[in-house]
Amino acid sequence: MSKTKKSNLISLADISANTLKQILSLAKELKKEPLSKSFFLKNKSIALIFAKPSLRTRVSFEAGINHFGGNPITIKMDEISVGIRENVEDIANVLSKYVSAIVIRTFEQKQIEELGRFSHVPVINALSNEEHPCQIISDLFTIKEIFKDLSDLKLAYIGDGNNVVQSLILGCALANMDISIASPKNYLPNKYYIEIAKRINSKIRIELTSNPKQAAKNANVIYTDVWTSMGQEKEFTKRAKIFKPYQINDELLSYADKKAIVLHCLPAHKEQEISSKVFDRFSEIIYQQAENRLHAQKAILMKFIGNR
Questions:
Q1: pLDDT digits (tens, 9 = 90+) for 229-270
Q2: What digits encode the pLDDT tens for the residues 126-135?
Q3: Do 226 and 128 share a domain, yes or no?
Q4: Which domain holds residue 224?
Q5: CA nearest neighbour of 203 among 181, 221, 179, 183
Q6: Looking at the 3D structure of the chain, how many domains does it have?
Q7: Model confidence pLDDT, tens digit, residues 69-128
Q8: Which end of the chain is more exposed for a tag (fewer CB within 10 A), N or C?
Q9: pLDDT grade, residue 307 (50/70/90)?
């Protein structure tokens, strides 16, 4: 039986600003002493369901669970075919009998929401086509390490209005950061996320533009992602032409704050969304950002599994 009420991390809209602060504080503690909570998941198993290829998400979750003394059970989507071979309700109820939490990386956000509704253990969104909350918590942790305080910073996102930027919008609202997004006209993020962000924090500035120089102006953080995400490979040639003006390069960085940093959630396609020169200059921070997936996700596990 659960000792505490179950909560999920399906969207950053699920948590409060205070909860985010707690997770970031835990991540800092766990990064300083990685094995300080080495028995947190002793004799507990965590299900990791993957419908999409993964390097950082899978390895960081598996490593983090092992650091806690737990047992990660990685399941490929084709092994269980959620919603096809077996309905989501049955899978959620059965897995809840075996594991202490379910981490899922898949295509449909609705599938994760349904899993969260029926599961009796916490469900964590490790990526969907709509959102990527674990990535953004890690990103905010990285930014906080460098700038010490998140409030009143400006983040500029340059590129495709995908799941990463949609979660960034929510994350910036929770962290009290302004965000400016530059995307081609037909590739802007869903306005739904802007509406939710304004409900979370009406004081921050959220700017949408098709002009990357305008977005980058005075920014403290410049963030980009691939132009063509998984499942969009057939659009590569078309997207490469449309997004060509949205590359992070020296010229674009000249519009940002002099102490600005560059982040990339990886994998990076150099000379597409980011120049090799800029990537190399900020590679230490980008790899720090990748490392922090481990610490942030361990903090997420601690926060959401708690004393269950």
A1: 877 888 999 999 999 999 999 999 999 999 999 999 999 999
A2: 999 999 999 9
A3: no
A4: 137-290
A5: 179
A6: 2
A7: 999 999 998 888 776 678 899 999 999 999 999 999 999 999 999 999 999 999 999 999
A8: N
A9: low
Whether 164 and 251 share a structural domain = yes
197 and 162 in a single domain? The answer is yes
Quick one: 252 and 297 in the same domain? no
> How far apart are the C-alpha atoms of 236 and 242, rounded to whole Å?
10
Return the HEC string of 220-287: CEEEECCCCCCCCHHHHHHHHHHCHHHCECHHHHCCCCCCCEEEECCCCCECCCECHHHHHHCHHHHH
Does the residue 177 lie in any domain?
yes
Residue among 167, 71, 159 at smallest CA distance from 126: 167
Does residue 145 sit in the same domain as residue 272?
Answer: yes
- Integer-rounded Cα Rg, in Å, for the chain is 19
Residues 6+ apart with CB under 8 A from 299: 23, 24, 26, 27, 30, 137
DSSP for 157-185, written as a single string: EES---HHHHHHHHHHHHHT-EEEEE--G
Q: Report the length, in residues, of the chain.
A: 308
End-to-end CA distance of the chain: 8
Do 176 and 277 share a domain, yes or no? yes
- What is the 3-class SS of 17-40, one letter each residue? HHHHHHHHHHHHHHHHCCCCCCCC
Q: What is the C-alpha to C-alpha distance for residues 203 and 223, in angstroms, rounded to an integer?
A: 22
Share of the chain above pLDDT 70, in %: 96
The DSSP result for 109-120, as a single string, is: HHHHHHHHHH-S
pTM of this prediction? Answer: 0.95
